[in-house]
Amino acid sequence: MIDRLNPTLGQALGLAAMLFTMACEKEITKPTPGTNAPMVGPNSGKAQPKLATIQLFLGAAELETEVADENHERMTGMMHRTEMGENEAMLFAFPYPHQTGFYMKNTTIPLSIAYIDRESRIVEIHNLQPGNTNTVKSRSRQIMYALEVNQGWFAKNGIKPGNIISTDKGPLSSAVRGR
């Protein structure tokens, strides 16, 4: 027979678990104590430092791609950046498939975004306009990744929905944490 917990103890344990979970995700990256590094985040007015990169292959095209797989990295994305190289990109990796949406608050570079499913297949491509705060939602509820490139890059390289993205380690799920 299972004994029931005291209701007060159960509430206290639940509150402690909730506070611990909230503390695990931060919206602003704080500098390491003892450094003079500035705080960065979506509302800090500063671009986040360049993130770790991987090579992505889309047909004959290659992209040097920063990977945003932490919540604060995804929230900040390309905000406050002033340039992106011709064959550079940012990949947003999510922990589970869902419907997602992106907007261009504090973003000055015209971008195109591809919404990608768990099998590394491009499902949708949209153009995003600098400074536009209207969310461009995916139609699909199975999005695991989003790939931002300079606006027009997909068209210039003949990339369309249905194309598969790969890495030197195979599908995206083999190369990034959000899978």
Descriptive report:
The protein has a domain at 53-175: Sandwich (Jelly Rolls). Helices cover 18% and strands 28% of the residues. The chain contains four helices and eight strands, in the order αββαββββββαα. The strands form two sheets. The protein has a six-stranded mixed sheet with strand order 1-2-3-8-5-6. A two-stranded antiparallel sheet has the order 4-7. The termini are far apart.
> What's the alpha carbon Rg, rounded to whole Å?
19 Å
Mean model confidence by pLDDT: 82
> How does the helix and strand content classify structurally?
alpha+beta
Output the CATH homologous superfamily of the domain at 53-175: Protein of unknown function DUF192
C-alpha end-to-end distance: 39 Å
Q: What's the total count of β strands?
A: 8
Name the beta content range.
Answer: 25-35%
Biggest β-sheet strands, sense, barrel: 6 strands, mixed
Number of helices: 4
Spans of 5+ residues with little confidence (pLDDT < 50)? 1-5, 9-40
CATH architecture of the domain at 53-175: Sandwich
CATH class of the domain at 53-175: Mainly Beta
Proportion in helices: 10-25%
Kindly report the spatial arrangement of strands forming the biggest sheet. Answer: 1-2-3-8-5-6
From the spread of the alpha carbons, the general shape counts as globular
At CATH level 3, the topology of the domain at 53-175 is: Jelly Rolls
What is the chain-wise order of helices and strands?
HEEHEEEEEEHH
